[in-house]
Automatic annotation (TrEMBL), chain A:
<dbReference type="Pfam" id="PF00694">
    <property type="entry name" value="Aconitase_C"/>
</dbReference>
<dbReference type="GO" id="GO:0009316">
    <property type="term" value="C:3-isopropylmalate dehydratase complex"/>
</dbReference>
<comment type="function">
    <text>Catalyzes the isomerization between 2-isopropylmalate and 3-isopropylmalate, via the formation of 2-isopropylmaleate.</text>
</comment>
<keyword id="KW-0100">Branched-chain amino acid biosynthesis</keyword>
<dbReference type="GO" id="GO:0009098">
    <property type="term" value="P:L-leucine biosynthetic process"/>
</dbReference>
<keyword id="KW-0432">Leucine biosynthesis</keyword>
<keyword id="KW-0456">Lyase</keyword>
<dbReference type="InterPro" id="IPR015928">
    <property type="entry name" value="Aconitase/3IPM_dehydase_swvl"/>
</dbReference>
<comment type="pathway">
    <text>Amino-acid biosynthesis; L-leucine biosynthesis; L-leucine from 3-methyl-2-oxobutanoate: step 2/4.</text>
</comment>
From TrEMBL, chain B:
<protein>
    <recommendedName>
        <fullName>3-isopropylmalate dehydratase</fullName>
        <ecNumber>4.2.1.33</ecNumber>
    </recommendedName>
</protein>
<dbReference type="InterPro" id="IPR033941">
    <property type="entry name" value="IPMI_cat"/>
</dbReference>
<dbReference type="Pfam" id="PF00330">
    <property type="entry name" value="Aconitase"/>
</dbReference>
<keyword id="KW-0432">Leucine biosynthesis</keyword>
<comment type="function">
    <text>Catalyzes the isomerization between 2-isopropylmalate and 3-isopropylmalate, via the formation of 2-isopropylmaleate.</text>
</comment>
<dbReference type="InterPro" id="IPR018136">
    <property type="entry name" value="Aconitase_4Fe-4S_BS"/>
</dbReference>
<feature type="domain" description="Aconitase/3-isopropylmalate dehydratase large subunit alpha/beta/alpha">
    <location>
        <begin position="8"/>
        <end position="456"/>
    </location>
</feature>
<dbReference type="InterPro" id="IPR004430">
    <property type="entry name" value="3-IsopropMal_deHydase_lsu"/>
</dbReference>
<dbReference type="GO" id="GO:0003861">
    <property type="term" value="F:3-isopropylmalate dehydratase activity"/>
</dbReference>
Length: 198, 465
């Protein structure tokens, strides 16, 4: 699935200082029935975002117009639970291009990169600094540079580097996915299958 | 080569290409698909103009959103019906084996794989469902993947993964009376937390796992994901071979002997190193139950709910969790009234689970305030229940048997626990809303579920054994 190339993103951020945000909250199971990949953004955080009668819950951050931006800043262990990739699509479809946390669940992290959503892992201290910066100014700008592998709080200049494999970085910078890469290996894979005992 | 773990041996045998500073390209022996995570993958394949590379290595079933009553009737929910139809069309078009609703071999994906000998030691197995880790019970590397990866495996029979770190969890001793494999795994998760194994692939070792039946091992490996691990595995042994011998897709004759000879080499070398090791003692494990909204929030059934300080995981999570559950710190779990009981799922939907449940309800009556959903994991399990006379035991005690599927494990069909109600569930996740919006889930073993079903409150099953 094609996604936008990722180079450097400068944006305000939406703060969600909650730990263990699991993928059932990001996109509840009842919304997994689609056979298309679009439209998931509408149901992002559905049960936290809306009351039963579909009215928005005013105290949920996505319903608070003072917080906007393409970066979601979450608490520790973001994306735990079910492997549903829909969670990453929902975030991407809603308009997020980057999620920042001090710790991501493994599968979520993989899924996110694969759909063009950059997960940035920062230290717990830096995460606190980001939350503080947003608390002081809801419009505080963050700069996420994939080429430099850095995240910067522009108001204070505080910066941290993050880790991403060269391979994933290359893909994100070019808007490629893994399948493009593997399809070019067809013969090598065929030869491997030939000698398999299973 | 010496000094290899079981995991290393299987992984290394499947690396097609190693990308420097990148992931390994891993060949996948078996791929399971179901109606929920595959339609978009097939769409993607089509929009790339790609074909399924090895259709005979993929197996499809319908389980996640299927009803558990009246399966002979058309599926009412239009979205579910649409996904099921898409799977039928896609498998036909690409020549993939499909055991749909009503098929004699239909059932939950992680139950039918082992049942039919599709799952074998030393394999790499993936599926777009995180509980693919179940198949690790056979000494296979098995893990859940996202929909893009489903498309990837369909198109290339490979996936790209960095090699995870390795953890070994050893439990020594013998499990006590009334303590099942579910309790062992819930205990581990309560000790190391719901993220304690993130980034690792786990091997379970020691007397407790060696003593377990294959079905019990599947329950343990199933919940590896609940401690954050990519997967979990157990070295194959004589029990594994005995379980597989003669199954539909198991190797036959000479191929069988050859396979067994290879499978016997699949164990961790004595001097191999793990990145992290935990050791527990079976004596410390009693029947478990969860009180919170992640699987790590569990404890021995006779113990009070831990205080915020004792509980592992953040304090905010803890308070939010207990509030959602309607429980308070240091409450006793015993005696808490419950409304629903769910026996089923790929964690505890096999015949041994129904035997355990039946052994407690036999000669007793279902409590009037309890709605019970007993959902076999497959038609094969359903037939076994009937053949062994368990159905009579269940019916006499006031229970009904439903038809196979994932059911209330993720509540994508009509089996939803209403908001605010308590369900003792043998499934694997107690997240907010997992079993229906507002539902409150207490994860437990089939014994604990049965004891609750006949008393209507959380009850220590040991008094019935
Ligand atoms: S029973 Fe639950 S965990 Fe198992 S495959 Fe079905 S939905 Fe997934």
């Amino acid at each position: 699935m094609a996604y936008d190339k990722f180079t450097t993103l400068t944006s305000s951020a939406v703060p969600m200082p909650i730990e263990n945000v699991d993928t059932d909250q990001i996109i509840p199971a009842r919304f997994l029935k689609a056979t298309e990949r679009t439209g998931f953004g509408d149901n992002l955080f559905r049960d936290w975002r809306y009351n039963k009668d579909e009215s928005p819950k005013p105290d949920f951050v996505l319903n608070n117009p003072i917080y906007q931006g393409k970066i979601l800043v979450g608490g520790k262990n973001f994306g735990s639970g079910s492997s549903r990739e829909h969670a990453a699509w929902a975030l991407y479809d809603y308009g997020f291009r980057c999620v920042v946390s001090s710790f991501f669940a493994d599968i979520f992290k993989n899924n996110a990169i694969n759909v063009g959503l950059l997960p940035v892992t920062v230290s717990a201290e830096f995460l606190d600094k980001i939350f503080k910066a947003i608390e002081q100014d809801p419009d505080a700008q963050l700069e996420v540079s994939l080429p430099n592998q850095t995240i910067t709080i522009l108001a204070t200049g505080e910066q941290e580097s993050f880790v991403i494999s060269d391979y994933k970085k290359h893909n994100l910078l070019n808007g490629y996915d893994d399948i493009d890469y593997l399809r070019a290996m067809k013969e090598e894979i065929g030869a491997f299958a030939e000698q398999s005992m299973y | 080569m010496s000094k290899q773990t079981l995991f290393d041996k299987v992984w290394d045998a499947h690396v097609v290409r190693h990308i420097d500073e990148g992931p390994d390209v891993l060949f996948i022996d078996r791929h399971f698909i179901h109606e929920v995570t595959s339609p978009v993958a097939f769409n993607g394949l089509e929009s790339r103009g790609a074909e399924v590379l090895f259709p005979q290595r993929t197996f499809a079933t319908a389980d996640h959103n299927t009803p558990t009553i009246n399966q002979h009737l058309p599926v009412e929910d239009p979205l579910s019906a649409n996904q099921l139809q898409a799977l039928a069309n896609n498998t036909t078009r690409h020549g993939i084996s499909f055991w749909g609703l009503g098929h004699a071999k239909n059932g939950i994906v992680h139950i039918i794989g082992p049942e039919n000998g599709i799952t074998q030691p030393g394999m790499t197995i993936v599926c777009g469902d995180s509980h693919t880790s179940t198949h690790g019970a056979f000494g296979a590397i098995a893990f859940g993947i996202g929909t893009s990866e489903v498309e990837m495996v369909l198109a290339t029979q490979c996936i790209m993964q960095p090699k995870p770190k390795k953890m070994r969890i050893t439990i020594n001793g013998k499990l006590g009376k009334g303590v099942l494999s579910k309790d062992a795994v819930l205990y581990i998760i309560s000790q190391i937390s719901a993220s304690g194994a993130t980034g690792y692939f786990v091997e379970y070792a020691g007397e407790v796992f060696e003593d377990m039946s294959m079905e019990a091992r599947m329950t343990v490996c199933n919940m590896s994901i609940e401690m954050g691990a990519r997967g979990g595995m157990i070295a194959p042994d004589e029990k594994t071979f005995a379980y597989l011998k003669g199954r539909d897709q198991s190797p036959k004759d000479e191929a069988w002997d050859k396979a067994v000879a290879y499978w016997k080499t699949l164990k961790t070398d004595a001097d191999a190193k793990f990145d992290l090791e935990y050791t527990f003692d079976a004596d410390d494990i009693e029947p478990q139950i969860t009180y919170g909204t992640n699987p790590g929030m569990g404890a021995g059934i006779s113990r009070p709910i831990p205080t915020a300080e004792q509980a592992k995981g953040g304090a905010t999570t803890y308070a939010k969790s207990l509030d959602y559950m309607g429980f308070a710190e240091e409450d006793s779990m015993l005696g808490k009234p419950i409304d629903f009981v769910f026996l089923g799922s790929c964690t505890n939907g096999r015949i041994e689970d129904f035997r355990a449940f039946a052994s407690i309800v036999k000669g007793r009556r279902k409590a009037d305030n309890v709605t019970a959903w007993l959902v076999p994991g497959s038609h094969v399990v359903e037939s076994q229940i009937k053949e062994e006379g368990l159905l009579d035991v269940l019916t006499e005690a006031g229970f009904e048997l439903r038809q196979p599927g994932c059911s209330a494990c993720l509540a994508m069909n009509d089996d939803k626990v209403p908001a605010g109600k308590y369900a003792v569930s043998t499934s694997n996740r107690n997240f907010e809303g997992r079993q229906g919006p507002g539902a409150r889930t207490l994860l437990a073993s089939p014994f604990v579920a049965a004891a609750a079903a006949v008393t209507g409150v959380v009850t220590d099953p040991r008094q019935f054994l």
